[in-house]
Amino acid sequence: MNLFLVVSIIFVLNIPFGYWRANVKKYSIQWILSIHMPIPFIILLRVYSGIGFKFITYPILIGAFFLGQLSGSHLFKRKENTPIEK
User: DSSP assignment, residue 6?
Assistant: First the structure.
């Protein structure tokens, strides 16, 4: 599995968690869980993809993690600002 595929999976995996994070009170248990729950899946993905824990992959994968979280948060905020049609 190449690095681009792993980055894509991490990005998509974090979108629902970012959506959840935007919906709960900041620094609550749910907020902390929404950030930390995907981490074991990412570690398993790193191990089984063969990427391992090379130093050069850390900034790329951390960037995908945070961009996925931010994208989910933006989706929630966009949905909240959309007027409901009756």
Answer: H
Residue 51 resides in a domain: yes
Helices (H), 1-86: 3-22, 29-36, 38-49, 57-81
* pLDDT tens, the chain, 86 aa long: 799 999 999 999 999 999 999 999 999 999 999 999 999 999 999 999 999 898 999 999 999 999 999 999 999 999 888 776 65
Domain range enclosing 65: 3-81
